[in-house]
Specification:
It is a single chain. The chain is α/β, with parallel strands linked by helices. The protein has three domains: 5-105, no CATH class; 144-369, Rossmann fold, CATH 3.40.50.10810; 373-617, P-loop containing nucleotide triphosphate hydrolases (Rossmann fold), CATH 3.40.50.300. Helix content is 46%, strand content 15%. The protein is built from 26 helices and 21 strands. It has a seven-stranded parallel β-sheet. A six-stranded parallel β-sheet has the order 16-21-20-17-19-18, with helices on both faces. Strands 1-6-5 form a three-stranded mixed β-sheet. The chain is globular, with a radius of gyration of 28 Å. The termini are far apart. The relative contact order is 0.07.
């Protein structure tokens, strides 16, 4: 007999739960009739659909090129399968969600976006243009908002992919290699959404140290956008203060502390930067984020997997609950016995499951689109205690105008403090790794940065000014992670330095070389490293350029990432803006620094200048 669609669906919906496995469907068919002429077509490869533009400007849903009747579309949305011409078809969850979103939407523009961004199953550009001419959008965006940077081709693809993910209101895991501009792609999506009226509220959650960097990147990459910062002791305790803000930037610890406030808010889009911090599902930050209300979410990380398959489950669970199944089931199959004992088939299953929500490009894949050198300026935010003590030290120097000798002695401490506060108390070499992280946002960011380099099995050279700091770095990163670490500073004899470089270069896997920019900033060839970190900034950009040239030189076959770390709202940012961002002034400052004025004198003059500028403003 031929099983009729209506009878079959009625029986399933009335007396049975919807079948989810081959066995359940076979049992269901056996109950009806063992001779049923229903062909099981979809158990090996779940079906997807495509869309067509009809003459009446309606959008048809096609299965294998044939338009589905309305009742079949309803069946797919309700039960994830349908029967057409006596054939039983299952559909993947992505397709079902797309259809559900489209079906629930009454606004044509929103429907058009949902379908138009449905990847290979979407409408063609010509069809979209034809539709846009026939229908007018009902939502108005903000024409004052625009993107001011030019995206690389791979970033344009990333923007289109993120747009598709947002259109169907499901999670996205943006896991591009470090240095490929993940932040720029996310900001481009936000700017596009606000401009077009599809995004009205965004929550961006970041580590404490990156608040300033996100704020500055919005300023650099867009016009018409000013994020609202919810952080610090002066933040509001009322959810009403955040309502109406297009973009709210906050920190993981703040969300956990202010969870009662955030639970009263709903965001169109949530962005979780450095999402590897969410790899522990039992941490307070992860549990807090799981209680937020948002329509769609993006997790941003260069290291989605570090130690355990549970890393992937926890991160994806924040942006899409139970995307990889329940925790117990996932753990029993993929976590319990450890990564080493997982079969290749199991690993492939997880990779296949992640494909709809994961976008990951390595630098080698887009090398032809990249410049040979990427300068990456990272504005960091000090922690509460750092800020308070920094302000005291800055005030002491500014108030020493009549006694420059005293001021210059304080500037020595000032420079130490900007590198790491524990340098000032001489406690740095006895501090634990956690104490080093807790005391310095800059060190915390360096730890995160080097962890990403290590996960890619690459090498980095790190420039810092103080011998005690270099010794500490070499020691703690080796003892904490087991990484190969080396150093070259004034304590290493000249005749021994090439041996150090050879050992560093010949190391298999990740390795890190810590150098003093004065003693090791020129004349050395270290092309085995493709990451350069200026942890301690040099006020003379020529000196930094010479140091960077240790890795970025003839013989380098990889694109080189050069990171410049500095604290926002500090003397470091003032000097950064004066010397490195304003090229028309930079040449004069370089000349003055080299020939007439010491670095201490320049720091002192800039501090006094900023003090007088603030007084004039008042």
């Amino acid at each position: 007999m031929v099983v009729k669609v209506d009878a079959f669906l009625f029986a399933i919906n009335g007396n049975f739960s919807a079948p989810t496995t081959n066995r359940e469907v076979m049992e269901l068919l056996r109950i009806f009739n063992s001779s049923a002429e229903v062909k099981l077509n979809a158990f090996q490869s779940f079906q997807t659909v495509s869309y067509s533009l009809e003459n009446d400007y309606s959008i048809g849903v096609l299965l294998k090129g044939k338009r589905l009747p309305a009742e079949a579309v309803q069946a797919i949305i309700k039960s994830q399968y349908c029967i057409v011409d006596s054939n039983l078809y299952f559909f993947n969850s992505e397709t079902v969600e797309e259809l559900r979103v489209v079906h629930d939407m009454t606004n044509f523009a929103a429907q058009l976006i949902a379908l138009g961004q449905a990847g290979s199953r979407g409408l063609s550009e010509n069809e979209l243009e034809k539709l846009s001419l026939h229908h007018s959008k009902s939502k108005t965006g903000d024409p004052t908002v625009s993107l001011t940077i030019r995206l690389y081709p791979y970033q344009k693809f990333g923007l289109a992919w993120l747009t598709r993910r947002y259109a169907i209101r499901k999670g996205a895991l943006l896991a591009d290699d470090m240095g490929l501009g993940k932040t720029a792609q996310v900001i481009a999506l936000i700017a596009k959404g606000i401009q077009e009226g599809t995004i009205e509220s965004v929550l961006i959650v970041v580590p404490n140290s990156l608040i300033a960097n996100w704020t500055i990147e919005f300023t650099k990459f867009t016009t018409g956008i000013k994020p609202y910062i919810h952080w610090g002791s002066v933040r509001s305790g009322f959810s009403q203060s955040l309502r109406g803000e297009k973009i709210v930037i906050t920190t993981y610890s703040t969300v956990a502390n202010d969870l009662g406030l955030f639970k009263h808010l709903h965001f169109d889009l949530a962005v979780f930067d450095e999402a590897s911090l969410l790899k522990n599902p039992d941490s307070l930050r992860t549990q807090a984020l799981n209680q937020l209300n948002f329509s769609s979410a993006i997790a941003v990380t260069g290291t989605p997997f570090e130690n355990s398959m549970m890393d992937l489950w926890s991160i994806t669970n924040v942006i899409w609950k139970d995307f990889l199944g329940t925790r117990d089931k996932f753990s029993a199959r993929y976590v319990k016995n450890g990564i080493a004992k997982l079969a290749k088939e199991d690993l492939q299953e997880v990779e296949d499951a992640l494909k709809p929500i994961l976008l990951r490009r390595m630098k080698e894949e887009v090398l032809t689109e990249l410049p040979p050198k990427l300068d990456i300026y990272k504005a960091l935010t000090m922690g509460y205690d750092e800020q308070a003590n920094y302000a005291k030290l800055e005030t002491s120097i500014k108030n020493s105008k009549l006694n420059q000798n005293q001021a210059f002695s304080l500037i020595s401490d000032f420079r130490k403090y900007s590198a790491h506060p524990l340098l000032c108390s001489n406690d740095i070499q006895s501090a634990s790794f956690d104490e080093l992280r807790e005391a310095s946002s800059k060190f915390e960011y360096l730890d995160s940065l080097l962890s990403q380099v290590a996960s890619n099995k690459e090498k980095a050279i790190i420039f810092a000014n103080h011998i005690a700091l270099i010794d500490t770095f070499k020691s703690v990163f080796k003892s904490s992670y087991g990484w190969a670490t080396y150093k070259i500073d004034g304590t290493v004899p000249v005749e021994e330095r090439q041996k150090v470089i050879d050992s560093f270069s010949n190391t298999t896997g990740p390795a890190f070389l810590f150098l003093n920019p004065v003693t090791a900033g020129m004349g050395l060839n270290i092309t085995s490293a493709n990451h350069v970190v200026h942890y301690s900034r040099q006020w003379n950009p020529a000196l930094e350029a010479q140091a960077s040239a240790r890795a970025y030189r003839n013989g380098q076959v990889k694109s080189v990432n050069i990171y410049y770390l500095y604290y926002a709202n500090s003397i470091e940012e003032t000097i950064h803006n004066r010397i490195f961002l304003k090229q028309e002034v930079a040449s004069n400052l370089i000349k003055a620094t080299n020939e007439y004025v010491s670095e201490d004198q320049m720091i002192f003059d800039l501090l006094i200048e900023t003090k007088e500028a603030k007084q004039n403003e008042q």
